[in-house]
Amino acid sequence: MTTDPEIAEYVLEQLVDSGEITTRKMFGGIGIYVDDVFCSCISSKSIFYLRVGPSNIEDFKELGMAKFPGGKGAGMPYYEVPEEVLEDSGVLSEWVAKAKIAAIAAKKK
After folding, report:
1. By CB atoms within 10 Å of each CB, which of 9, 20, 45, 72 scores lowest?
2. Domains of the chain (ranges plus CATH)?
């Protein structure tokens, strides 16, 4: 299975206010870099995820969002982005900024 091109195009359009966006194909999905920081992805099932850490994980959990599967059953440190966040590029920019912070902090460990 591979990412639906229409969904990928929509997500990338919504990210326009978040910074400089670059992408890379990964495992049937798309890895998304914002200002050269890998902090989001679109899975092969066309689900958009953002990186989580201590500063933003509760935002996702409070809305009951799903964790990215994988990581030997433990899941990966990415959570599905709520539809209402994806639809509002201003709010999405705020969530992406937190995801970048989480990704940068994880690299420093």
Report:
1. 72
2. 5-104 (3.30.1460.30)
